[in-house]
Amino acid sequence: MSVQAPQAATRILLEQQEMPRRWYNIQADLPFPGSPPIHPATKQPIGPADLAPLFPMELIKQEVSQERYIDIPDPVQDALRLWRPTPLMRATRLEKALKTSAKIYYKYEGGSPPGSHKPNTAVAQAFYNKAAGTKRLTTETGAGQWGSALAFATKLFELECMVYMVRISFEQKPYRKSMMHVWGADVVPSPSDRTEAGRRIRAEDPQSTGSLGIAISEAVEDAAKREDTKYSLGSVLNHVLMHQTIIGEEALLQMERANAMPDLVVGCVGGGSNFSGLAFPFLRDRLQGRTKTRFLAVEPDACPTITRGKYTYDFGDTGEMTPLVKMHTLGHRFIPDGIHAGGLRYHGMAPLVSALVEHDFIEAVAYPQRTVFEAAVQFARTEGTIPAPETAHAIRAVIDEAVKARERGEAPTILFNLSGHGLLDLAAYDSYFAGTMSDIRLSDARVQELVAAL
Amino acid sequence: MSVQAPQAATRILLEQQEMPRRWYNIQADLPFPGSPPIHPATKQPIGPADLAPLFPMELIKQEVSQERYIDIPDPVQDALRLWRPTPLMRATRLEKALKTSAKIYYKYEGGSPPGSHKPNTAVAQAFYNKAAGTKRLTTETGAGQWGSALAFATKLFELECMVYMVRISFEQKPYRKSMMHVWGADVVPSPSDRTEAGRRIRAEDPQSTGSLGIAISEAVEDAAKREDTKYSLGSVLNHVLMHQTIIGEEALLQMERANAMPDLVVGCVGGGSNFSGLAFPFLRDRLQGRTKTRFLAVEPDACPTITRGKYTYDFGDTGEMTPLVKMHTLGHRFIPDGIHAGGLRYHGMAPLVSALVEHDFIEAVAYPQRTVFEAAVQFARTEGTIPAPETAHAIRAVIDEAVKARERGEAPTILFNLSGHGLLDLAAYDSYFAGTMSDIRLSDARVQELVAAL
Asked: Which CATH class is domain A88-115+245-453?
């Protein structure tokens, strides 16, 4: 019989009551000073009052908090328990296929109703807004992972939800829009006629296919204009990254239970939230000198923010409505080419991730998309789960590291974030199999041009 | 603050090592004689030799076994552990929305890589075929849940896989086809030019959109013709239902842990496998006189096999290639209208389910599709998960039973099978919201005509 022998436990679960009850705020442990957001007009650090039109005070407090831990409110815990704790898996079938001595673990965040890690912060943001009396939330979304997560969360907490969806995704990826409708959200293609920012772009370019930067401008303007409305962002900001640390806090417990600690932690980065959510609780030990764990952020060659962008103050949006934040950026006017990993097409990076890169706590690598899909297919054919194109960037890096380990005769423990499944991204897989997918790399000349303008 | 108060544990998990290690074979406990499959030519009960061209001997033995329990082989357990044990959930948010005193629990089978309960039997069938030296499996699929599950399972056990997919689904639902490609299967639209059965149908009707019955004929013919190839069916047969009993065995442990036992067990039925998988382990206690639990099978008005079909011997396929089995049927030539719940469009019913209906152990009810989607949306907006259209039939019945309980002042415990998520079925939800979905009910005149021909 040529079938394989039985194996040890490969799926480590936590009981519902073991779910972590507080978030980890890495700001408390940074061994270097932070760079505060700056007001675009005054060039002075912004204060809570500047953000009050957009966010409820509890989230503004979290954004600047120096407390190491912040309790997760009970109603947020209740919502999280619809799909958390999430499983930690050992990828034994992938290890065998790679003939590697590396141990590969992954945290699976695709089991949430919207299919990604995004609702971890969406339910928290919906809760704090509901508690502060907000009636309606606006946001932007690219491929739709974040928009669908916020639609889900606002329905749980009985808020209205208005999603500005990048026009090209609105037209080409109808099904995440359908998910948002199921959860009761309004969705319009961006640039839209509903905001001045949208109308201005359309006047300049009636055929504009939109971008995340434009959609952010629209959502921010909408929220700023209406008393009953606030704005919600799915990545980049400190409080968003903090809400995702429940991933890493669970993974720490689970890795302990597996009697394994990672030598390397890997995640894909667009704005930085799924990577940070897994990495920060492990970084806590590194920052405090207790481990030498490596951290690897993986981005697309088409939008190589960390690996080739500039570390400087820049706007978060195209319309220059947000504060300036210090981050790795390709410039707020940069519109990345249309790769399938829509969630990684952001010109900037979370300031916390950027600062940790600058201080050598986080490494980064960029990949072209065909080799990313090759890794995704290898993963699906060994471990079963079909990963999202964004997540597949992390998998590419993990496979490369595992192969390197084999060649060097090393046996590292690798942990990565399987941040979402790819069941709404199957057209991208079709394109890969049909041979019509191209490797899009931002040229050096274009990077020089973009960086020079900063 | 208007947000809800914290609640008790609503998600009951089992450890990996708690996964049941044997299947429950209800044939051992039936208080009535079975009705054996009959050879269409001789009208005599078929023997193992008749089935040997299609199935490996271990599965043929399981099909007729009178053993109460059959051990799950270790490699099958390993494969199941990629996503099992699955969670049991208490639907407290739905209960609150319905203002019901009923306690509603559901077993969530949508967390498998293909997104439904189907891989529970797919990995078992792939294993037994691999062990018997089979190189290639053929099967049919409608909307693609079963085809994608078998593609996944054959990839795990390194078999080739050939899927005959009902042509209208092949054209209208491209993404489950994409999933099968990711897992390396061949997929052709049925009726195809590859088999005599397919060519005959195409000669009669070049525009044929296909049916499950036709696709079964093609898959059976392909398997019968080739020495290295066997056939695999995703429902109806005794061994398939038995492989699904791991659902109910887990649910029994979980309900005990929740200190709750169901008064009513609900599942949707196409061929009967997800319903049986959950129900049979609970039926064991009822058959042995220890409980009075009710069992409710839910089917579509467009294909009301149990509620309005005839209990008689009929073919499993359109091409009359399978044995005759005694079941509720609308006739093997009946092609149901194109409802969105493609997995429930089968003219017959599992013989075990049919016999248990005839002996009053199982009740049945049928629903039109708009009220089914109304229930699906209510579920998604309270519990989060977007259910498959098939599964939504069960949810409709659960909501109706919970409302009845409220009206009667009763507090029953209801358990249902959330057999799959609807993330590949979002076009159906679009149709529901657009108001273009129609309620398709098989007319009484047509039923009379169909039944008279049997």
From this structure: alpha beta
